[in-house]
Amino acid sequence: MSTESSTQKSPLLADTLTDSDNFNSNFVIKVGKNVTLALGADALLIHAIVDADPKVVKNIQCCGLWTTESSPSQEIPFYNILAVEASESTLSIKYAKLLLKEDYSPSTLQYILNGGEATKVESWVERLLELAYGDAQRNKRLRVLINPYGGKGYATDLYAQYAAPMFEAAGCKIDLETTTHSGHAIDLGENIDVDAYDAVVCCSGDGLPYEVLNGLAKKPNASEALTKLAITMLPCGSGNALAWNLYGTNSVSLVALAIIKGLRTPLDLASISQGNTRTLSFLSQSYGIIAESDLGTDHLRWMGAARFTYGFLVRLIAQKTYPCDVAFKVEMDQKKDIKEHYLAYKNKKPELRPVGGGDQVGKGLPPLKYGTVDDEVPSDWEKVSTDTIGNLYAGNMAIMSADVNFFPASLPGDGMMDLVMIDGTIGRMKSLSMMTAVEKGQFFDIPEVEVRKVSGYRLIPRNQGDGYISVDGERIPFSPFQVEIHQGLGTALSKSGHLYEARGPC
Ligand SMILES: Nc1ncnc2c1ncn2[C@@H]1O[C@H](COP(=O)(O)OP(=O)(O)OP(=O)(O)O)[C@@H](O)[C@H]1O
């Protein structure tokens, strides 16, 4: 029996069938003369004797590709099933078929239905769809935004080749627009009809989702918009952190499949108050060596990804430090407690965001419970004044770019940011070894890595004329700012419904 390479089990229904169900006659139908289709534990089981009746299994052209079902028997993981339809005389099954390493493309199987099975077919089709989609919304309405200049400039082609055929096969409704200028997605977010779509799909890096979120935040009914519309991305930029965290891959077709099967997941968002502005952040804020290595090396773009490493090493060798005053509303500061919190959250059943949002209709952004950066620091915040910080990095997601799981304990909806502080005087060798520890998943436990879970913090740079502060990879002015988390204000489409696709801290 040939086996389609499995991407993932349908998450919430994988355990609803047992092996003994495999041959439960309720889940088996006969099609053509000699094909049986059974619903197994986590896959559609197809058993066919092709030679006996060459017309039973047909080759169908789908989205320009001819599928060839040369093998008489195969298994298709439920996760890969995109659509199933039965007419009076035919049954059609569309699924994501593995082409190359991580590239999938839709393919169709079509069978002739036997009159004798007619009564069974309708409920069999619905059962297969339930197993294929679990709690994921079917036929999502997607507002697709393409940044034609994202990453290396291939977003338009990547979408057309790897994502559009999958969305079409899965019966998603698509409304596509290409951005024409920087800031365009802010306007598109601000003016979107929140009842017309289920998700905004950015074919871009992390810059476009940041703009869309901040456009939605400008709406008078911002909370309603952010709970109704999920924000997600097809990885077409350089960093693509959102895709790594939600789907654990940089493959456009696999992400398209994960969006089709995506579970509506409450996502914490942070308000950044600076001067008299308030912006939303979904990913991270950084001050010190990380912000400088990223934003301060723009003139070295010709180096490609190496510019970050180069910028990092130059500053590391100089042992640069970044004086500042920091204050935090600490929720947890012991690594043991953070690990326990992570495990307890992981083991809980996900609470998915309902389609259509919930009870936020008409509501604007939540008020700032800790005030703005111009208010007094709340009396119960912990204060630290330091001249020697090398890196202050706050994460709302775990993975910052491929292989950089910097915040392993980060959770989408726990109402806390993970804040990491590392002293800049710990020594060059120690700093370098930390870089490799991130890749090996050993970073969290390094004693010199201070980790706190906070629900708010303030940072005031000191004794420097100018410098870099990064919010979601974008530069903001070099002046004091305050961050406050809003639990579950946003919505994402994730694979698990409550976790990032990152190795946890334990
Ligand atoms: N048509 C356009 N012309 C110029 N800039 C655009 C256009 N559309 C979007 N942008 C801008 O491109 C910026 C970067 O977008 P994006 O994150 O998609 O790509 P990227 O190349 O991966 O960037 P990054 O280096 O931030 O990862 C966004 O901030 C957005 O304002």
UniProtKB/TrEMBL annotation:
GO terms for molecular function: ATP binding; lipid kinase activity. Coiled coil: none annotated. Keywords: ATP-binding, Kinase, Nucleotide-binding, Transferase. GO terms for cellular component: cytoplasm; membrane. GO terms for biological process: sphingosine biosynthetic process. Gene3D superfamilies: 2.60.200.40, Probable inorganic polyphosphate/atp-NAD kinase, domain 1. The lineage of its organism: Eukaryota, Fungi, Dikarya, Ascomycota, Pezizomycotina. The keyword Nucleotide-binding applies. This is DAGKc domain-containing protein. The keyword Acetylation does not apply. SUPFAM superfamilies: NAD kinase/diacylglycerol kinase-like. Residues 137-276 form the DAGKc domain. PANTHER family: ACYLGLYCEROL KINASE, MITOCHONDRIAL (PTHR12358:SF31), SPHINGOSINE KINASE (PTHR12358). InterPro entries: ATP-NAD_kinase_N, Diacylglycerol_kinase_cat_dom, DUF7493, Lipid_Phosphate_FormReg, NAD/diacylglycerol_kinase_sf, YegS/DAGK_C. Transmembrane segments: none annotated. It comes from the Eukaryota.
